[in-house]
TrEMBL record:
InterPro entries: CDP-OH_P_trans (IPR000462), CDP-OH_PTrfase_TM_dom (IPR043130). Keywords: Membrane, Transferase, Transmembrane, Transmembrane helix. GO terms for cellular component: membrane. The keyword DNA damage does not apply. This is CDP-alcohol phosphatidyltransferase. GO terms for biological process: phospholipid biosynthetic process. GO terms for molecular function: phosphotransferase activity, for other substituted phosphate groups.
Length: 203
């Protein structure tokens, strides 16, 4: 199934000049990872503190795009500028999971969302990323299968944040959207687990 993640090579090509400038300035991959996590906490805190205001929702689309860029940048710095390390890999994976949690869990406080479904989405987001990581333990590569990986979730909630932030009407369709995201994440977990096992068995 298609995923926004498939566009990553094009995105990386666009970001390469920025990566070169950061490398020359001495910025490390770990600093970029920590910056992304800190900004995620800040945006999530704004949503949690002002759940009835529309302006925090307008932060989501721009920040989620920035976060995708930062995630790509820290990986490029690590691979292309010899900054890869075990601690950096752990920090990157934990940072992604924590960032998802602090960004999306506060949406449970926003009245247009169903709180229970948002909690389910956050839990499944953690499991989805874990399914990608544990693939390495069975002899496979890190899995990024869709259809509802990290980038896909960012697209869905970024567009939704823009819609709501600009005053777009909400309704029961948001709950249906939450259910759809949940179902697609379950499919993603299955595909990542199946893909990991298939790759491990073929080696």
């Amino acid at each position: 199934m298609a995923s926004i993640y498939l566009l990553k090579p094009v995105f990386q090509k666009m970001l390469r000049p920025v990566v070169k400038l950061l490398a020359r300035a001495g910025v490390t991959a770990n600093v970029v990872t920590l910056t992304a996590a800190a900004l995620s906490f800040t945006v999530g805190a704004c949503i949690a503190l002002w759940p009835y205001a529309t302006w925090p929702m307008l932060l989501l689309p721009g920040f989620l795009f920035l976060r995708m860029a930062l995630n790509a940048i820290d990986g490029m710095l690590a691979r292309e500028y010899h900054q890869a390390s075990a601690s950096g890999a752990i920090l990157n994976e934990l940072g992604d999971v924590l960032s998802d949690a602090v960004l999306y869990l506060p949406l449970a406080l926003v009245s247009v969302f169903n709180a229970a479904w948002m909690v389910v989405i956050v839990v499944l987001a953690v499991i989805t990323e874990m399914a990608g990581v544990v693939a390495v333990q069975v002899g496979s590569k890190r899995r990024y299968d869709g259809p509802m990986g990290k980038s896909d979730r960012a697209l869905v909630f970024g567009v939704l944040g823009l819609w709501l932030g600009l005053g777009g009407p909400a309704g029961c369709w948001i709950i249906y959207l939450q259910i759809a995201v949940t179902v697609l994440m379950v499919v993603t977990i299955y595909r990542r687990a199946r893909g990991a096992l298939a790759e491990a068995e073929s080696t």
